[in-house]
Write a structure and sequence with these properties.
This protein is α+β, with helices and mostly antiparallel strands. The protein contains three helices and twelve strands, in the order βββββαββββββαβα. A hairpin with a 4-residue loop joins strand 7 and strand 8.
C-alpha cells in the first residue's frame, strides 16, 4: 500500500527491452535507499513495481506486458523521470489516502490553466467508463500523487495544484497531450458499484411486479 505522498523523483538510467517485457533502471533518491532490498515494492508514477536489482543508487524493476499496456511506464525513455514512493509502513503518517498501486487507466492532459499561486489541470481518461468513479471533492491518484478532484464533466475532470506539489512531483513539468496514470479511490468505486447493483435489483423487481400485474389483469 502507498499513501500518494510522493517521496522523490527518479531518473530513468537504462531500459532493457525483451519480448512483452521490460526492465528499467532508475537512480533512486539517496534518502529512499536505506533498507531497500530485492522484492521491495516501490511506486513508479503510482504503479506498484518490485525491486529486482540494487547496485548503489541504481535500482532495477521488471515491467510485464500488462503494466506496459495499461500505464504510461511503457512510453518512458532514458532520461525521463518518475514519481517514486516506497511502500507505507503501519507507523507511517497517511498524509494522502491509501492507494494500492494498481492503475486503472491513463488520462490525457487536455488543458492547463496557470495562476500566481496554483495550477489547474484538466484530464480526459482513456477509459471513459472510469468517469463514474470520479466525483467532485473525491480522492484520486494521478501519477502516484494523492489529489482532490475539482470540477467534473461527463468526460473530463480537473485538479488544483499548489506550488509545493508542482515542485516536488513531475506534474510541474507536464505538457498538453501527455498521459498520466490514474488510480481510482477504491472506497468510491465500491460505493458506486454497490448503489448500481441495488438500483438494478430494484428496477428488475419493479419490472417483474409490473409484468405479473399485467398478466393478472389479462386473466
Amino acid at each position: 500500500m502507498f499513501t500518494g505522498i510522493v517521496q522523490g523523483i527518479a531518473e530513468v538510467l537504462a531500459i532493457e527491452e525483451k519480448a512483452n517485457f521490460r526492465t528499467h533502471t532508475v537512480k533512486m533518491p539517496v534518502e529512499l535507499l536505506p533498507g531497500l532490498e530485492l522484492g521491495a515494492s516501490v511506486s513508479h508514477n503510482g504503479c506498484c513495481l518490485t525491486v529486482t536489482g540494487v547496485e548503489g543508487d541504481r535500482v532495477s524493476f521488471d515491467l510485464v506486458k500488462e503494466t506496459l499496456r495499461i500505464t504510461n511506464l511503457g512510453s518512458l525513455n532514458v532520461g525521463d523521470t518518475v514519481n517514486v514512493e516506497r511502500a507505507a509502513k503501519f507507523s507511517d503518517e497517511i498524509g494522502g489516502h491509501l492507494m494500492s498501486g494498481h492503475i486503472m487507466t491513463t488520462a490525457e492532459i487536455t488543458k492547463i490553466l496557470t495562476a500566481d499561486n496554483n495550477r489547474e489541470i484538466w484530464f480526459k481518461p482513456q477509459d471513459a467508463s472510469q468517469m463514474k468513479y470520479i466525483l467532485h471533492k473525491g480522492f484520486i491518484g494521478i501519477d502516484g500523487i494523492s489529489l482532490t478532484v475539482g470540477e467534473v464533466t461527463k468526460t473530463k475532470f480537473c485538479v488544483h495544484l499548489i506550488p509545493e506539489t508542482l515542485a516536488r512531483t513531475t506534474l510541474g513539468k507536464k505538457r498538453l497531450g501527455q498521459r498520466v496514470n490514474i488510480e481510482i479511490d477504491p472506497h468510491t468505486q465500491a460505493i458506486v458499484e454497490t448503489v448500481e447493483r441495488v438500483l438494478a435489483r430494484r428496477e428488475a423487481e419493479l419490472l417483474a411486479a409490473t409484468v405479473a400485474e399485467e398478466h393478472n389483469d389479462a386473466s
